[in-house]
Design brief:
alpha/beta; Rossmann fold; seven-stranded mixed sheet; two-stranded antiparallel sheet; 7 helices; globular; binds S-adenosylmethionine
Length: 219
């Protein structure tokens, strides 16, 4: 089955529910909740669609970073922002609401385009989606890179840190929201504070995750 944007948006609308983000109630997202079909879906149900629907949940890192950006709009207001590993588009939407002049959301999962499209529209945000990884692109024309919850996988975390530190060396502000995942950076970051993020036992071992806002320092 060929994946089309309309097909993925129909899939999302019919299997998720529009729900407020716990730590960011200003934003509503199409999410998997206990009341939705996606919550109970098996691998067979998802075959041909998206067997790893990261976009269906607001991850702890993204919730904390979205909260931080909305509470500190001076970080993005009037600036060009990239949201790396956007998933649902949560952080990108927060950046737009906080006054960013341009927001580009990157994710390697093409299914995210439908989620970002629906979620942006629901919240009145303008977000451009790009279905590829910008890792390694030396001259991304942005002022700020945001990344919610991207330290859970070794290779991605390592590549993101190398790339992010190089961008930081060229004056780009790089902020990550991180609930202490396995491959979180242990040094070379400035701790900008933490949030207790309500989450769900469908995706996490705990109902509340302490989540840090980390700013990458240049090498
Ligand atoms: C845990 S989810 C976080 C989603 C969102 N930022 C949030 O916090 O709710 C991580 C996302 O990173 C994306 N991702 C993984 N590797 C990537 C890469 N190399 N480039 C861009 N996105 C990537 C995944 O597809 C997934 O949507």
């Amino acid at each position: 089955m060929a994946l089309t944007l309309d097909g993925s948006m129909d899939f999302i609308r019919s299997r998720t529910a529009v729900t407020r983000v716990p730590l960011v109630p200003e934003i509503e997202l199409y999410q998997a909740t206990e009341m939705t079909e996606l919550w109970r879906a098996t691998t067979a149900d998802l075959e041909g669609w998206d067997d790893s629907p990261f976009w269906a949940f607001p991850w702890a890192g993204g919730q904390a970073l979205a909260r931080h950006v909305l509470d500190h709009p001076e970080l993005v207001a009037g600036l060009r922002v990239a949201d790396f590993g956007t998933g649902s588009g949560l952080v990108a939407i927060a950046a737009w609401m906080a006054g960013a002049s341009q927001v580009v959301a990157y994710d390697v999962d093409p299914f995210c385009e439908g989620a970002v499209r629906l979620n942006s529209s629901r919240n009145g945000a303008e977000v451009e989606f790009v279905a590829h990884s910008p890792l390694g692109e030396a001259f991304l024309s942005v002022d700020v890179v945001l990344a919610g919850d991207v330290f859970y996988e070794k290779q991605m975390a390592e590549r993101f840190l190398v790339w992010g530190r190089a961008l930081a060396g060229r004056g780009v502000r790089v902020l990550a929201g991180d609930p202490g995942r396995l491959y979180s950076p242990q040094e070379g970051v400035r701790d900008r504070g933490a949030h207790d993020v309500p989450t769900s036992t469908a995706i996490e071992a705990r109902l509340v995750m302490k989540t840090w806002i980390l700013e990458l320092l240049p090498e």
